[in-house]
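thought: fold this chain, then report.
action: predict
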Amino acid sequence: MSKDTKLITVNYEEVEGYPEFTITEGVMYNGDDLLRTDGNEYIFLKTKDDIYTNVKDIKIETSNNKYEIPIFSQIYFLEDRITYYEVQGDSLKYGKIEDIDEISKININGEELTYKEFLIKMGIIEEKKSPSKKKKIRKNQLIIQKL
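observation:
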């Protein structure tokens, strides 16, 4: 892996990667001695171009369909769709999920979230905050100032 590769934990925390590591079933090992590097469990590798490689299987349920994205697929998450390449033998097969919306369900490592919750946790979108309520002054309201 590249030194620019980041890792995403099961708690959606981003951790710096480093060259010559191996990941098996979400656990990171040193490439040299194959000893476990830390106590974290990971769900994604992330490139500097925001392309994710899942190190756990992903299940998605939209209002009309069910999908599975196999482990080690190259995934690009957008608000209104997911595109990915999955490994099939010696080649890559293109896939896309276009009927996804913010209430679709995504399940990774046994944790189910709505797609919107997932995008927020991944930092792909920001949670929209409700506008703050400002006090309005009526036209006919008298304002008294101290001099």
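thought: worth noting. The helical segments are 115-122.
final: tokens above.
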